[in-house]
Amino acid sequence: MTFQAYEILGPDRPSRWLVTCDHAANAVPQDVGGGSLGICAADMARHIAYDVGAAGVTRALARRLDAPAILSTFSRLVIDPNRGEDDPTLLMKLYDGTIIPANRSAGAQELERRLDAFYRPYHAAYAALAARRADTVICAIHSFTSRLNGRAPRPWEVGVLYSHLDDRLALPLIARLRAEGFVTGDNQPYDGHLDGDAIDRHALRHGRPNVLIELRNDLIGDVDAQALWAARLAPILEDVLAASGL
Question: What is the pTM of this model?
């Protein structure tokens, strides 16, 4: 049975919004290491394998926006769909102190196989959803760990990431979240522009308005917390988009 590299929710929902989750799952397909990357279950439950809580927020937010959503179904350690095909971090061999045994000896042939099996089908489906209407707006949902190994705690509750090529929605969203009292990172905890990443590929290259939202994963650890953040974000996103005139 062929592994399905993505899940689509509500493809016929009418909203301009398309909600995406590039790192939704921590699953390892059977044809990758027999379904294991060689790391322990505790590591597979960490942020290194997927964006903890992001899938639940994506599902709830898409429902509230009456928008379609696409979610990956494979671990970012299998291959990272939020990297360009030529990015050296596409297939990680070491991540936040953990060696990934199934990736250590993976060469160009295995990388190409994973691109064909998982990465490219996800992006083909993403592209088709984004093209379903001319005025698509993309909202990418991610999460981040509150603390990397050996690093200082991260203070932000939420971060808004964006490229210098398009900050039309991101800057007013940051202002609104801060006005609502949320500790909000401006291109924190990561820089928002990465050539070839999902937003670059599906939004920037097509002139589509976009935001990438990072939620601290200890704040979205269960279904209730995920639903709460979706309920907070949906009206703010709608307001910011309406006010933008885009």
Answer: 0.96
